[in-house]
Design a protein that fits this description.
Oligomer: single chain
Radius of gyration: 27 Å
Structural class: alpha+beta
Largest sheet: 6 strands, antiparallel
Shape: elongated
Length: 555
Amino acid sequence: MREKKGHPLPLGVTENNGYVNFSVAVEQGKRCFLLIYEKGAKLPCQRIEFLEKDAVGEVRFLALQKSTIENCEYNYEIEGKVVTDPYVKELVLQADGSERGRISMEAYDWEEDTPLEIPYHEVIAYSLHVRGFTKHSSSKVKKRGTFAGVMEKIPYLKELGVNQIQCMPVYDFLDNKKYTNYWGYGDAYCFAPKRLYASQENTGKELKDMVKACHRAGIEVVLNLPFSEHIMPQMMEECLRYYVLEYHIDGFVLNPVLAPMEAILADPLLKRTKILQNKEDFQITMRRFLKGDEGMVPGVMWWLKQQSKEQRSCNYITSHNGFTLADLVSYDGKHNEANGENNQDGPDYNYSWNCGAEGATRRKAVLELRKKQMRNAFFLLLMAQGTPCLLAGDEFANSQKGNNNVYCQDNETAWLNWKQLEKEKELFDYVRNLIALRKRLPILHSEKPLLGRDEMSCGVPDVSYHGESAWQIPQNVASRQLGVYYHGEGESEGDCFIAYNMHWTEHKFALPALSKGKRWYRVFSTEEELKEEMLVENQKETVVNERTIIMFLGR
């Protein structure tokens, strides 16, 4: 086995000019050996010492001829203890439960694939758990719970209209001794894709296949990388670079408390990569407005016009952490008893409202109200200027039976039940049509920030806010109504007026006067399905029923 000195960076295993380089950080004074195993063998076939005298700082390194070790497995032995490389790129589970790194230098044909770089204002994001997305038998995919399973659902994603998926942790996170680690938070081998999420031996290849297939369909792939507090900041940055270069990942959702955001945002290699962070302000404001809390109109006005590129976050009303949308309108309190923590885990207050009955009910009035509230929630999300992010399954009312913290539920509680799609086809079509409407009207996802000023000198600002009287912003803290008037540039964008009534009584809204020759048409309502645009008979005012949102276009 031919050996040469090698090089200290990057850490982990890399190939260069026919040699495989091994680089590992080891404290001074400790002996370290490289253990090479034939595939599946119990004992190493080679045990090679890293010489401390050749180290740079605390980094030790050596290189071996590629042809002699390709497809072998490896570990390190430090002070007599066998350890797995923290920078391992692909893990192999042994019969005795131990783990090793796989030395795989197989070339991958990307077929000229590159990250899509879809502008923020054009993104419709969709948050999913790779395993939970297709693991349920009702998903009807061949390779359930895997990257390949996601690929099988690409036609569904395209039909819905999303062009970005945000995946919960796909790196090889460690199981917790106390509970099943379903979400993937905590310690992990951050550079290695999760073995459980692959239908084949080569996990990395299957993840690459998924990314390439998504890109072909015009769908970005964004990874949620929560990282552990034990991971060094420089390792986080190296991890992001690796997924961009090796897997063509389009973006990341990071925890700004742990991740070195300043360094990441300044990294020239990541300048064209979407770097996102979760923020709850939009969620809380819109949930409270949805359920009819007073004093929310100013916050709603602010969030409706905020753009995500500047915020570095997506808008979401539901996410994996908390209720699904169906549960948000069905439960006042969490029901996490199955988690084994006496219902003490998970958020205590979710700004939810059960619409008159806790959980499952046969009361028709409650069920109808819940349907309307879900439609209202989707409208609030998709008609805001910022990048919307849907929680997978919300579009067909997927439920977790009131569990708002399924971190340990790798079972049907957390998996998407696709049988709901057949039952809730009407809701799915509503969401699909609403996404299409957003895409069709540029004023609803403007590239430029809306400033509330008359930028075109036409006498009307680009966005303005109204109450029941035109041009008068609701000042009363008890007001639960808001009118928003968008004035676009030219005929392609036109005029749009949206009347939000989250009150439990109907209200009249005065319609802003249009320029000569134009008339208002009713094009969308959360109360009823509109097959075609309807001319508004009274061009001066309209009645909006309780807990209803209506959109009008000026033609």
